[in-house]
TrEMBL record:
GO biological process terms on file: export from cell
Protein's name in the database: P-type Ca(2+) transporter
Subcellular location: Cell membrane
GO molecular function: ATP binding; ATP hydrolysis activity; metal ion binding; P-type calcium transporter activity
Domain Cation-transporting P-type ATPase N-terminal: 12-85
EC number: 7.2.2.10
Topology class, membrane: Multi-pass membrane protein
Source species, domain of life: Bacteria
Keywords associated with the record: ATP-binding, Calcium, Calcium transport, Cell membrane, Ion transport, Magnesium, Membrane, Metal-binding, Nucleotide-binding, Phosphoprotein, Translocase, Transmembrane, Transmembrane helix, Transport
Similarity-based family: Belongs to the cation transport ATPase (P-type) (TC 3.A.3) family. Type IIA subfamily.
Catalytic activity: Ca(2+)(in) + ATP + H2O = Ca(2+)(out) + ADP + phosphate + H(+)
Spans through the membrane: 68-85, 91-109, 256-274, 286-308, 685-707, 713-732, 752-775, 805-822, 842-862, 874-893
Length: 903
């Protein structure tokens, strides 16, 4: 094929005849020549997916420094080193920043592998015709125009337009989400490309789908990135990563702190200059204030909290691939869930059996000589492996499993009554027939198939061992039962039989499949997971809206959604199909997106539209899924949740979180953990910022009043010791009892929502005021006076008194923060209600921080290093009493807030 004749592989070949397709690709049913195949391989390229660009470890490391808060910290480190000359502050800040970056790289070391995983899904080999001979080649050597032979068990190696299909069934769940294999036909489809979804293209076989039954022949019409799987790979490569609410909040926090720091520093600089202080002195003072204002450890502490959250979630079967995903679930408004394999088992199961005019649940006992039970097992090509697993079409394996569950040993039964003839299933007559030799020399003709087709061939009905003639009333009752079961989203098959004296000479349908005795109906479904309904209920109680998205038919989707509690039974207005969605523009869809909770017969593009429509409504969207078709939506969602067992590597690679047990209820456990993590980050921020505000106010007001208090080394030690350990310990606080009774906070909330900002302000003011009060008391009422220190000069006495005041202010500010850590265990609840000492990590953190703070004052040698003095019992009593005052102050405010909240 010349370059000029190169075919556009995106054409709707399913609407064209065999001859048209073969002519376009300049090929025949005998296949291409080797020489022509080599030319086309150069022209079209290998039948493989693009790998995409990989980021090096170095690039990933430096990308960690894009965070706004990190930039602020780096700037502070440079300013501190250049102007203050004290490298300790700068070193600590840089150490924290580097550790934070390393954490990020380690957590994201297993970067996106979705494209590579898609490539690995391709079949390694393919049976094709070349020069009229059947040969086996590597799938990446296939070219458009090749003739491919398919058999049960094959993975389709490329997109094919089928030329022949003999009882061919292909399982396309990973691509379309439909759990039942699709019956394929070599026919021409009527309609336009936009009208015929992937799941309805019965004359096409798509790359990476699985042949479960029959055989077929097709011509390659799409390879590599031009296959449907390739299009998904392209969508993955082009889909931008969604910025998580956590990252947005941290950036917002960093900007707010920067503005606040600049404003306060500028005011202090101007006022100080007006009071006659030099600009150098004021610049250094402003830098000290900046060091106090910036919570240097916040990014690292948040990272540690998230990392600890990932460990807890891993123990609960939720494996987090990216740290911010831990808390994102906590803000989730919408969970868009794939049906097949996520809400359901992806395993056809018998739900009901209709015999003797009675519908019986699958759990009811069935007699071993029940004819319907025998027929469903006899007209069956399922193979039983040595390990007991069933191999074959999912519908047929479900029937055999039902028999095994009721002690019907199909292997023994068929051995006693062997199959001697058969008419295979085909999609035209929708029946399958097998003939079995009976012990008395007669033969059983067993027929299974579509109930409406089967009833046309029945003139008797089996009732309590008798076979009376079938009248119209009986026929209508059977049809009504079939309709009733179908409306419950069950796939219904009918069973019939007759006893003959000899094997029919000619196995023709018109001869063999007539004058039958109707034996019963069997209804099957891909059942919902037992725990899924409870998980949906809990999600709704938590204010989260579950949305089902599936490739299955509307009736099936509606029935499963009703059984799960996603919609009310009969609420078909909440269901929309992919075809109906196609008729809506993005703008029109955005206006009605809240009306729908179930999406049926959808494609991968639809899933992305649904996710983005909810995101445009300001909702935080989580998407669960296990198939290739889910990958783009998983990546587009605020948080993608893959399935660990049934999930493809593609869906796992595109996810932020993977459920190791494929249990939908694990998502709700993860939501609770996510809410707890966010709450604990809020507590940490409240603690750090109120403490830092106390430090800033102490330094700012002292500077304005020309008081010499709190040296930079004091601020640094407090930030490192009394800030860090309690802040980390707050990150592992147990969840508050009502954490799942609140509505999702959504995208509009931030770390200051829910009263945190006001708490930071008044608590910071209280800490600063108490510290300044202690300093002033120490100056006005010194422990060392001229009366008890007569040998000291006035200058030495002032230095001693000032040293005491400085030490008491330092000790008070540090100790206040330790007492205050108990306050922030809950924003509104009393600390006596949430539990003072139930968090062991917190208890140890407070103890260690206190010892490190006290060591600077009590241990000889540290006094000079920190420019502090030894305090007597009276001074320690003032420090301890004033510091403890922060607890009753906050308790009183919380009490008032709770009272106001109830009024």
């Amino acid at each position: 094929m010349s370059e000029e004749k190169k075919v556009q592989l995106s054409e709707a070949f399913y609407t064209q005849s065999d001859e048209e397709v073969l002519q376009k690709f300049d090929t025949t049913v005998e296949g291409l020549s080797d020489q022509e195949a080599k030319k086309r391989l150069e022209s079209y390229g290998a039948n493989a997916l693009d790998e995409g660009k990989k980021k090096s470890i170095v690039v990933k490391f430096f990308e960690q420094f894009k965070d706004f808060m990190i930039i602020v910290l780096l700037f502070a480190a440079v300013i501190s080193a250049v102007f203050s000359g004290d490298m300790v502050d700068s070193f600590i800040i840089l150490l924290v920043v580097v550790l934070n970056a390393i954490f990020g790289v380690i957590q994201e070391a297993k970067a996106e592998q979705a494209i590579e995983a898609l490539k690995e899904m391709s079949s390694p080999n393919a049976n094709i015709r070349r020069d009229g001979h059947v040969i086996t080649v590597k799938s990446d050597e296939l070219v458009p125009g090749d003739i491919v032979l398919l058999e049960a068990g094959d993975v389709v190696p490329a997109d094919l337009r089928l030329l022949e299909a003999a009882s061919l069934k292909i399982e396309e769940a990973a691509l379309t989400g439909e759990s039942v294999p699709v019956e394929k036909e070599a026919t021409i489809l009527e309609g336009t490309a936009s009208d015929i979804g992937i799941g309805d293209r019965i004359n096409m076989a798509y790359s990476s789908s699985n042949v479960t039954y029959g055989r077929g022949i097709g011509v390659v019409v799409g390879t590599g990135m031009n296959t449907e799987v390739g299009k998904i790979a392209g969508m993955l490569a082009n889909e931008k990563e969604t910025e998580t609410p956590l990252k947005q909040n941290l950036n917002q926090l960093g900007k707010m702190l920067t503005i606040a720091i600049l404003v306060i520093a500028a005011i202090m600089f101007v006022v100080g200059m007006m009071n006659g202080r030099t600009w150098i002195d004021m610049l250094l003072t402003s830098i000290s204030l900046a060091v106090a204002a910036i919570p240097e450890g916040l990014p690292a502490i948040v990272t540690i909290i998230l990392a600890l959250g990932t460990q807890k979630m891993a123990k609960k079967n939720a494996i987090v691939r990216k740290l911010p995903a831990v808390e994102t679930l906590g803000s989730t408004d919408i969970i868009c869930s794939d049906k097949t394999g996520t809400l359901t088992l992806n395993q056809m199961t018998v739900e009901a059996l209709y015999t003797d005019n009675e519908v019986k649940p699958a759990t009811d006992a069935v007699a071993l000589d029940n004819m319907a039970l025998k027929i469903m097992n006899y007209t069956n090509d399922t193979k039983i492996a040595q390990d007991g697993s069933l191999i074959g079409d999912p519908t047929e394996t479900a029937l055999v499993q039902y028999g095994l569950d009721h002690d019907f040993n199909v292997t023994e039964k068929v051995a006693a009554e062997p199959r001697v003839a058969e008419i295979p299933f085909d999609s035209d007559r929708k029946l399958m027939t097998t003939v079995h030799q009976l012990a008395d020399g007669k033969f059983l003709v067993a027929v299974k198939g579509a109930p409406d087709e089967l009833l046309k061939r029945c003139n008797q009905v089996l009732l309590n061992g008798q076979t009376p003639a079938m009248d119209d009333k009986q026929r209508q009752e059977i049809l009504a039962t079939n309709t009733k079961l179908a409306k419950q989203a069950l796939r219904v098959l009918g069973m019939a039989y007759k006893i003959v004296d000899a094997v029919p000479v000619e196995m023709d349908s018109d001869i063999v499949e007539k004058d039958l005795v109707f034996a019963g109906l069997v209804g099957m479904i891909d059942p919902e997971r037992k725990e899924a309904a409870e998980a949906v209920k809990v999600a709704k109680e938590a204010g989260i809206r579950p949305i089902m998205i599936t490739g299955d038919h509307r009736d099936t989707a509606e029935a499963i959604a009703a059984r799960l509690g996603i919609i009310k039974e009969g609420d078909d207005d909440a269901v929309i199909t992919g075809a109906e969605l196609n008729e809506l523009s993005d703008e029109a869809f955005a206006k009605v997106v809240e009306h729908y909770s179930v999406y049926a017969r959808v494609s991968p593009e639809h899933k992305v539209r649904i996710v983005k429509a909810w995101q445009q409504e300001g909702k935080v969207v989580a998407m669960t899924g296990d198939g290739v078709n889910d990958a783009p939506a998983l990546k587009a969602a605020d948080i993608g949740i893959g399935m660990g067992i049934t999930g493809t590597e593609v869906s796992k690679g595109a996810s932020d979180m993977v459920l190791a047990d494929d249990n939908f209820s694990t998502i709700i456990v993860a939501v609770e953990e996510g809410r707890k993590v966010f709450s604990n980050i809020q507590k940490t921020i409240q603690y750090l910022l109120s403490a830092n505000l106390g430090e800033v106010l102490t330094l700012f007001i002292a500077t304005m009043l020309a008081w010499d208090t709190l040296l930079p080394v004091h601020l640094l030690w407090i930030n490192l010791v009394t800030d860090t350990f309690p802040a980390i310990a707050l990150g592992v606080e147990p969840a508050e009892r009502d954490v799942m009774s609140h509505a999702p906070r959504g995208k509009k909330s931030n770390f200051f929502s829910g009263g945190v900002l006001s708490s930071v302000v008044y608590q910071g003011i209280a800490q600063g005021a108490l510290t300044l009060i202690v300093y002033k008391m120490a100056i006005e009422f010194p422990a060392h006076t001229a009366a008890n220190m007569p040998n000291l000069s006035a200058t030495a006495l002032y230095d001693l008194q000032h040293g005491d005041a400085l030490t008491m202010a330092f000790a008070t500010l540090g100790l206040i923060q330790l007492f205050h850590a108990f306050n922030v265990k809950s924003i509104y609840q009393s600390i006596f209600k949430v539990g003072l000492f139930r968090n062991r990590s917190f208890n140890w953190a407070i103890l260690v921080s206190f010892l490190l703070l006290a060591a600077t004052i009590l241990i000889p040698g540290f006094n000079d290093l920190f420019s502090v003095t030894s305090l007597d019992a009276y001074q320690w009593a003032i420090v301890a009493g004033t510091s403890f005052a922060i607890i009753p102050i906050v308790e009183i405010v919380k009490f008032v807030q709770r009272r106001l909240g109830k009024s």
